[in-house]
Amino acid sequence: MTTDEETPPPGGPGIGDYGRTFGEVYDDWYPPEFGDGTAAVAALARFGAGGEALELGVGTGRIAIPLARRGVRVHGVDSSPEMLRRLRGKPGGHLVRTVLADMADCDLGRRFTLVYSVFNSLFCLPDQARQTACLAVAARHLAPGGRLVVDHQIPAGVSPGISARHFHTEEDRFRFSLVDCDPVTQVMDRRTVVVTDGDTVSYRSVIRYVWPGELDLMAAAAGLVPLARAADWKGSPMSADSPGCVSVYRHRAPGEGAKA
Ligand SMILES: C[S@@+](CC[C@H](N)C(=O)[O-])C[C@H]1O[C@@H](n2cnc3c(N)ncnc32)[C@H](O)[C@@H]1O
């Protein structure tokens, strides 16, 4: 682990690549209010009130910067030097303490009132073993009485093979994705294609999605127990067609059985 963002973090091939693909377009595609970002900041501010927070996969600070503006002292881990550089260059970026590291294998040597992972950052880790390792990292950094909050999408109608999804249309551009899904490995290989007059650019991302029950099991393996789960940041109840899931965990108390 290092705070020198010119040095690549330890890890296997591909770790730290995210910003090379998405750094330039990230803040344009995902402005702060995207995906209920405003409600996310409000909820996280309540969990982190009076303490310090750690975001795993902080990106360009879409959530971390407004959270820091609300008085929470926010630290952010990311494996992409490019994403962290963009965070630091934004107004308010100096409020977030950034660490270039692999969120599945790091130790900052301190604990936080709130550890959180939002907007599918956990899905960037390529398999169940690394995702479970990330939850162990989260547990290790959680202070006694602290909370881990994990926010992720629930893929609708997962079926094998390729499906297309329209994203966004502006006057001069059209954005859609082609997703090749393997329900056995839970890996989605996505090509997002941006078409403008006379130009087509494609961006590739490979994610491994997680179901809520699997997240509980991975959390249990890290010594965490579920406290609450909602379909969104406003606390709406989960239903069969909830598009997302916000889960809250705490440390398992000594002598308390694993619940998942
Ligand atoms: C979907 S973005 C989310 C960024 C931010 N949380 C947000 O809400 O906008 C996922 C982030 O996770 C980071 N990431 C991917 N793999 C990582 C790893 N192994 N360790 C740390 N960060 C990682 C990427 O660089 C990227 O910034």
Automatic annotation (TrEMBL):
Domain Methyltransferase positions: 54-146
Keywords: Methyltransferase, Transferase
Top-rank lineage group of the source organism: Bacteria
InterPro entries: Methyltransf_25 (IPR041698), SAM-dependent_MTases_sf (IPR029063)
GO MF annotation: an example: methyltransferase activity
SUPFAM superfamilies documented for this protein: S-adenosyl-L-methionine-dependent methyltransferases
GO biological process: methylation
Protein known as: SAM-dependent methyltransferase
